[in-house]
Amino acid sequence: MSKRLSPAPVSVCTFTFADGRHCRMPRSETHPYLCHFHGRRESLSRAQEVVGLQVTNCFSGGYVTACDLSAAMAQVFAATARGEIKPRTAGILGYLGQTIVQTIPIAEREYTQTFGLNAWRRAIMQPFQDPASATAAGHNPPLAAEPPKAPEPASESTASRLASTNPLPKDPAVFAKNIVSSL
Prior knowledge:
single chain
């Protein structure tokens, strides 16, 4: 009788389930110790952690400015487009962002009535005056202490040319469809 030889040992996934069992799938060619499924799950988990850090770094301090919120929502939008955040999670974060935007005027009114308008302006400028915290938050603080210059008004021909080349649709659904189709 001939002896049956077992095939060459295959490197298997090292993932261990909660009950102590081991995954029996072969290791992925793209991951050093996990199968395709568990490697993908691990990489998505790491990507979500990175996105979470990027979003939280957009906030400059104790007060959330509209600029902070805009930068954070841009990070969420980009991460959703890359598939690093689930659309449901992005929707929840968008709803929370909308709620925060609605509270900014209320917080401004309370602060200015209590401490005055100059104190409000100092509170808003404070994160921008500390270059380390502003850079970490994704802001580029102005280099000079001079006030920003007012933009020059565009001529009517420039404004009409821009409006005719890139009109915004009136219907939000059409606008969203155009954005999605361009991705």
